[in-house]
């Protein structure tokens, strides 16, 4: 049975290698080309401190919203394909440097816990580089089982996060 509605999903984007602002800009264009999907909007670009090893470059982050007919795991497959085209290497270093990181932050009001995918993203409530851009595009967004973005961001320290002037 074909769905006659679209799911609103929020995608986190991050990069700190090989001209991160350009990596994010290209990734946003690629999100606009996803099958069975429409890019709705995206935040500005934010500079953020790395979560992992401190001896890596600062990150550029953004958030985008898409309406999609893709199932969550299909969407994940497409996002990982985009990461791979950008030269993403998964070397086992947790929170290490990367050319592109695309995370499904939320997928409608669904909660998914599978070996490949956890939605909402487990770190969404704690990450300034996710909450502040999310608030920019939809301050009233309620993340399933987590809370309202504007309230969550009030409890999240900015930690040096800065909007990148273009």
Provide the fold topology.
Blueprint: E1 7-15, H1 20-31, E2 37-42, E3 46-48, E4 59-68, H2 72-85, E5 101-107, E6 112-113, E7 118-119, H3 128-137, E8 142-143, E9 147-148, H4 149-154, E10 162-163
Antiparallel strand pairs: 1-4, 1-5, 2-4, 3-4, 3-10, 6-7, 8-9
Summarize the structure in words.
- The structure is a single chain.
- By secondary structure, the chain is α+β, with helices and mostly antiparallel strands.
- It has a single domain (7-163), classed as 7,8-Dihydro-6-hydroxymethylpterin-pyrophosphokinase HPPK (Alpha-Beta Plaits, 2-Layer Sandwich).
- The protein has helices at residues 20-31, 72-85, 128-137, 149-154; strands spanning 7-15, 37-42, 46-48, 59-68, 101-107, 112-113, 118-119, 142-143, 147-148, 162-163.
- Strands 1, 2, 3, 4, 5 and 10 form a six-stranded antiparallel beta sheet that branches. Strands 6-7 form a two-stranded antiparallel sheet. A two-stranded antiparallel sheet has the order 8-9.
- A hairpin with a 4-residue loop joins strand 6 (112-113) and strand 7.
- The longest helix is centred in the middle third of the chain and has 14 residues, at 72-85.
- It is globular and about 45 Å long.
- The protein starts with 6 loop residues before the first strand and ends with a strand.
- The mean pLDDT is 92.
